[in-house]
Amino acid sequence: MSRIIFFKRDLMTVLGLALLIVCMIGIVILTSTSVKEIQLMYDARAEAKRWATGFNTALQTETYDLQNAFANRRIHLDQRRLVSRIFAFDVFDESGNLFHSAGPSDWRPYRDLSFALKSPVTRYQRDRKLLTAQVRTGEESAVPANYASVVIPFHSAGDYIGSIVAFVDQSEQAEYFTNSFLIIASVTGIMLLIAFGIPSLFVIFRTRDRIKAEERVRYLSCHDELTGLANRKLFDRQLGRALETRKKAGVHLAVLIVDIDRFKEINNALGHSAGDSVLRYVTEILKSNIRDGDFAARIGGDQFTLILSSIARAGQAAVFAATLKEALSAPLWVNGEQITCTVSIGGAVAPDDTDDAAILIRHANLALGRARADGGNAYKFFEDGMDTAFIERRDLECDLRRALDSDQFELHYQPQVVLDTQTICGYEALIRWNRPADGTISPAFFIPLAEETELIVPIGEWVLRRACMDAAAWAKPLKVAVNLSAIQFKRINIVKQVKGILEETGLDPARLELEITESLLINTTGKVVEDLNGLRALGVSIAMDDFGTGYSSLSYISSFPFNRIKIDKSFVRTMTRDKAIMGIVKCIIAMGRSLGVSITAEGVETPEQNQIVKSLGCHQVQGFLYGRPVSASACAKRIAEPLKITLGNRAEAKRATRAA
Question: I need a labelling partner for 100 at 20 to 30 A (CA). Which of 88, 157, 250, 439 fits?
């Protein structure tokens, strides 16, 4: 509607300007014509006055009537006519009767003076001695194309005695004035065209640009700019219409939500342009697989939605989801790198699950969550139990938000042992949640949710402060290791926070070791490098935790200032029965030694594992073989005792593993 209003308004403006230009040019033309006639009239009067000057002088000095005066001056008038532009003249007496005519023999325009004046000569004209001129256009061949008739009244002794009508040739003057006024009119027209035409063009272009901008805004309000698919607003509108159509037709309808697995890692590792390429690739696959009448939209960063309308049965949606998953799992090349783009798909079917649009989308989201929880690269459809799982997750998030304020968290500490001396060199701080309804909860259960909701930021700050306070109170100056999340690096100034807590607790920075995972290294931005170097400058140590399990490569080891690499426990547990894993562990230890970086093996639970990592040159170990995590008070008590430890037998290690 606004587009029509703007268009009509600008169209009226342009038409108004065009009409103004036409009117102005018309006025110039009309004015030019009038001025031309006036100029020709003045010219004719002046020429006739010059021609008749001598005759008029004679009448003023001699007492004659007009006929006698003319008889004496006729030859003089004829001679002067030949050297002037007077090509003919008629002489009328005081009564207005013609008594002499000179000029072309076959041309007599007037029979008496009334015809010359088109009215009788008035007393006013006689008394004021006015010359009356009329500009005419010649139609006969005997006369010029442009001429003027000038009535010259004569007086003798103050009395009117007659008039002479002189016909003045004005062909050259008329042509001159015509050409002059044509030039003036043309110049004026061009100036008007420039003066009003340029604004008119500006209005036209502005209207066109405004219409294009409005169309673009209208398009972007309902579509995704990158992929060209519908956005959430248009999807919601289309889903409502599709559900109404489904009810009338009595068929099934399915909503599928497609989520790209590990898209953030791909996007950050290969660049945002690569992420955009993956999104466009997924869009093309979706478009090529949906049927006529189906609908595709992009509703979020890496989430797409599909409406499968008019399906005969619910199983048809599952077949489509399986086909789509396989189509999207084909390898593709992005920025010279070959990657495999897998997806998780969640679906809900109307009317089997619900006929309400909002509930249908929520059910599809629940199914998507189950597909992602199963490791991704899968499709799931809504089941009744998923609603319960959603409620449980929501309750867990609410309890987690209250846990920090309710002092429900506590730290446990697990020893880290130097293999050569069999002495404890430090402890790793591990968080536990004493949830009132469930007792003590492992971090593996709630940390992923804390990172997803970014509650890890205040929780991480609490862990760091409490660990530094506990370590500062230990009887011996052992190191304490604290895990940091990539979210903390992203959301806060981690260097400032660590420095502030060290000053607050009085802990020696050399006793603090901060453990990070490879997920942080995916974001290889200048800020990450700056933060790591800033932490090193404080005097704290940096360790890479769970090495070998992330999306990164070994090149990060030489790119970042690590003091320690911790081999993930999954490698330690399987190396005794898998020679390939044994080779990986051996390579990690050798690489660490060549780079001068200490190596810690996590998850050492048996003497056999302990002996293997020791023989491979590992510096330190951590695991149930040397002790399971204990409370802060138990840890402080143990530190007060001699630090050298004695390995338990295999049975004790197994019991410790089961107890943990």
Answer: 157
